[in-house]
Amino acid sequence: xxxxxxxxxxxxxxxxxxxxxxxIVGEYPLYxxxxxxxxxxDRLVVECLSQKAACRQTMRFAxxxxxxxxxxxxxxxxxxxxxxxxxxxxxQCSSCHTMHDSQNGASMKIDSTPxxxxxxxxxxxxxxxxxxMLRLDCLGCHAQAVDGGDNxxxxxxxxxxxxxxxxxxxxxxxxxxxxxxxNIHGFGNDIVAQDSDLQNTPPGYVxxxxxxxxxxxxxxxxxxxxxxCAGTNGCHGDREKISQTQAMHATHHGDDSxxxxxxxxxxxxxxxxxxxxxxxxxxxxxxxxxxxxxxxPTDHNEYKGIVYADRSTQDWxxxxxxxxxxxxxxxxxxASADIGGPSSPWIRHPTDILLPNSGEYAAYxxxxxxxxxxxxxxxxSTASGTVTPGTDTVLCLSCHRAHGSPxxxxxxxxxxxxxxxxTGAGAGNGCFVCHSNKDGx
Length: 441
Description:
globular; 13 strands; four-stranded antiparallel β-sheet; about 10% helix; 7 helices; three-stranded mixed β-sheet
C-alpha cells in the first residue's frame, strides 16, 4: 500500500493510493480516535511510493480532526512499511491475543486441547509466559477437539481428529501407534510420548543438511524431549528460533496470496515464513483452499519439486522443495551420496528426481491423490490433474504424509498389501502407481 499525496478539504482529504501494482478505487472511512491510528475497516497502513506519478487514481477518506489527520497520514506515508492483505482478515483479536493475561482475576489462557493428564497446552505445564500476547499455542488452535469429528474448526485446520484426514495427515493415528506419525510434543506423554525406538533423534539426521544455526537439539524440552510443531526442533516457522511462538511470530497476519491459486507468484514465494508454503520456511508450492478437505483431480495442493542435486551440505539458500525441508532432519535419506545416484541403481529410494518418462513409469499420467508428484514450476490457476513423466518429480510426500497416517512409517497406503504380482487390494495402488508393471494387472 502507499499513500503519496493529500489535499485537505473541510472534513476530509484526497489521497492517492496504490496497492501491489493495482489502483484501489472506492470510499473507505479512516477513523482516528484520540490520536490513535486504527485504520478500519480496510486496515490500510500507508507508505511512500517512490514513483508517485504512477498513482493517478484517488480515494476519498472521511477523517476526524482533519488537520491532525492530514499531517499524521503524511507522516505515515514516509515512515511506515507496507502490509498486504492477511491470512487472518476477520474475527475478534481477543480470540487469540490478550493484553494483560488477566480478566476478573483469572488467566486468559484457552484450555482447548485436553489430555489425560489434564494439562491443555505447552504453557499450561511450563512456567514461561506465552510470547506475542497469545492465549493459546499451536495445539490450542489446531487441536481444539482431540478425537472430535471436525477436521476444520472456525477456519483452522485440525490435526488430531477422527474422520477424513487433511492433506498432511493426522496425529490421531499416533495415539494408536507411535510408528504412524511424528511424535509431536504437547499432547502429553501419556498420549504421545517419545518414539519407543528412536527416542528424540530424527532418523537419518545429519547436521550438515540442517541449515539452522543451532541445529536440531534432541534434549530440548527437558526430561521428555520430543519434536515440536515449529522452531528449531520443528518443521514450521523460522527454525533459527527455538521458541515455537517466536518462530511463528506474525506469520498468520502475513500476505500469503502468492501461494494461492489465482494469484500464484512463485518468484515471490519463500522470502518470509508467511510467504512460504504452509509456513514451512523457504518452501514453495500452491495451497489448496481447504487443506484438501475436499479433493479431486484438480482440487489438491501442488508441491514444489527440484531435479536431484548431489550436495554434501544444505543451506537456507538451497531450500525450495518440500523434500529439501524433510532433509533438514532426515538428510541421510535425501540429498547425500548415501542414497546413491544420480541414476539407478539407487541405495535408497530417491527424491527430488524426475519421474522417468520411459518404461513402467511412463504409464503414470493421471494425478493420483495418494501418490502426489512435485512440479518443477509452480504455475496455473488451478491444480493440475495431469502427471508428466520426464517433467514432474518424485517427492518424500509421494509416499509419506507429514503429520501421520493410518499406516506404519506415515505411509499413504498399507505396505503389507504391496506384493509383486498381486491382483488383490494392493494392485494398481501405492508403489504400483509408479512401478506399474510390478503388480499382477
